[in-house]
Structure formats: structure tokens, C-alpha cells
Protein: Phosphoribosyl-AMP cyclohydrolase
Organism: Terasakiispira papahanaumokuakeensis
Amino acid sequence: MGSSTPFWQALESAETGTQRPLEEALDALAFNEAGLIPAIAQQHDTGEVLMMAWMNREALETSIQERRACYWSRSRNRLWRKGESSGQVQQLYSIHTDCDGDTLLLKVDQQGAACHTGRRDCFYVALTETHAEVDQSPLVDPNTLYGNP
């Protein structure tokens, strides 16, 4: 019910074309206690939801500057440019926030597989009333993505 900060509340009733400085928007984002915000990657032309990852402010600023998706890797504890080791790059078309600034939506052009399993997207396990079912085959052997033949 409503936005969490005055910045987002003011935009709720703003007219199309209203602009605010980028720094103000970045300052108003709801990063969690680890300094991260969820980022959903979506194929720009088909609407296909590809993956969810985390961004810190530096990853977000890097993505905006480079026009290429850059995330924060919690396992590596460093910035991670999507495709840096696999070649499965995400060219950035746009970044949007949700209405209260606690989730990002990146519209990208995904080159090949988005998932580390070699699948097009990370959402390949369907949950039904009775079971979980893999409903998507890998596009490429994940071992070849990361140089482990």
C-alpha cells in the first residue's frame, strides 16, 4: 500500500515525461541490508523472463554506463558482467524500477543461454500439483560455456 519513500510517492501521480536526476533515483532505491537489489532480466523484444540476479549500486551504474548487464555475484563477491566467462552476453536496452524502488527490470538482448545450466532462461522447472518437472532442454552443454570440456 503506497511507496516507501517520498521520491517514489511523488512519481506515483507524475505525468508522463516527468524527469528527476539519476542520482536522486539511485539514492532512493531500496537496497537491502547487504546493499543489493533484485534485478529481473527480460528479453526486450519477446517479453521472455530470463533470470533474476542481484545488483549493488556499482553494478547498476556500470550497467547504465556500459549498456551491458552487470550484476553483483554473491558467490564470487565481485561485479559480474553477464557473459564474461560464458560469452552469453546481455546487451542492455533499458532499466526500469518498480513503483516503490525495490526491484529492477532490465530489458536486454540475451545472446544464447541466460542460465548457467545452458538453458535459455533460469525458469525451467515447472511446479504442478504433484511434482516438479524440467520443461526445457539446454541449448548448449554448460561445461562448454565455462571452459570445462
